[in-house]
């Protein structure tokens, strides 16, 4: 191998590593796919229209392939919390609802007068406790 091919290989590996690190940063810190906690946003509001449309008092908007959505469901199931799941990649009506609610990352969980965008186990547990859904 000559110097040029070695240098090219090093540059390709460095670029791939940089892209991997950058993608990891985006997932962790921007709320993309739930963000693993750092991108979690809790918003106060009147979500009665969401509950009326979904037919339940806790509503989870999710994607079938989202690992953070699965973790949120596991926590809700572990606590025996009844909820309505709206899977936006499997149900056209759910997707239209999500579009109307301006949901651009998942999971989004509506509980009482609060919504949680993204997933953080401790924050979800705190939200459940606050709304009388104790473990």
UniProtKB/TrEMBL annotation:
Taxonomic lineage: Bacteria, Pseudomonadati, Pseudomonadota, Gammaproteobacteria, Lysobacterales
Domain of life, source organism: Bacteria
Any GO MF annotation of the entry: electron transfer activity
Designated name of the protein: Glutaredoxin family protein
CDD domains: NrdH (cd02976)
A Pfam entry, by short name: Glutaredoxin
Domain Glutaredoxin, chain residue ranges per copy: 58-114
GO biological process: cell redox homeostasis
